[in-house]
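For reference, the entry.
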Amino acid sequence: MSEVASRLLVTSAELAAHPEWRVFDCRHDLRNTQYGRQAYAQGHIPGALFLHLDDDLSGPTSGSNGRHPLPDADAFARRMSECGVDQETQVVAYDNEGGIFASRLWWLLRWLGHERVAVLDGGLAGWKRSKRALESTLPTATPCRFVPHPRDMAVDVGRVLADLGSPRMLMLDARSPERFRGENETLDPVGGHIPGAVNRFYFDNLDDDGCFFKPVAELRAEFAALLGDRSPDSVVQQCGSGVTACHNLLAMELAGLSGSKLYPGSWSEWCADPARPIARG
C-alpha cells in the first residue's frame, strides 16, 4: 500500500491489531432506513459504534436542500464528542455496501479538520473473508471534546450554477449510468443529470468483486483520463444526495489527485427547483 493510501484505507489485519482505534459501523439502506441499526445489533466488528446516515451523518431536510444535507458542524462535533472522538483519536469507518456510507463519515471528519480517519478496505465483507469474529455486545465510549475546524471542501448550488459550462468546473456524477441518463430513477422525483456533468459510477472504484478498492495506479489512470488537462481542484463531486460522491472523493485522494470538492445537495437538491436546467441521455 502506498504512503498516500495508508492514511486513507486500513486493512482488516491493521484494524484487528489496533483495538484502541475508534471504529464506526455506517451500514445503511436508502430504501430500508432501519436496516443498518438492525444489522449492527445482530453483529458488528468488535468495539464498533453505530452511526446512522439520516440521524448522524446528515442534517435536517427542507424539501429543497437535498435528501442528505450536511449536518451542522457543531451538532456533528457534539456527536463525535459523545462517541469519544477528539483530535488524537484514530477513526475507522466501515459498511457493507462497498464503502459508500463509510466514505461519507470519512469526508465529514476531514471537512471538520480531523485527519486521523480511514475507511476499512473491504468493509464488513473483507473482515468476514479474513475469518474475523463479530460481536453483538453494545460498546460504550468515554465522552471527550471534539473541536471542529471546518475547511473549504464543499460548494453550494449557487457555485454550481455560476460555473455551469465553465472550464473552471468539472462535475463528476457518482450515480449509476442508468440514473445518470435519467432512466429507472426511483430515489428522486425527476430523472437526469446536471448539464455538463461526467458520469463516474462509484462502483468502478472497486475490484471485480465490488469489495476492495482498485490499486492506486489503476484509480489514478482512470481518473486522469476523465480529468484530461484539468486540475483535480477543478472537480466538483456529486451524486444523488452527496453520499456516494464521497466514494469518488476518497478514490481521487487515494490516486494522489487531491483537491476536489463535494456538492452536498447533489441531484436531489438540483432537481427540486424546476427552473434549473436538466440533461438526459
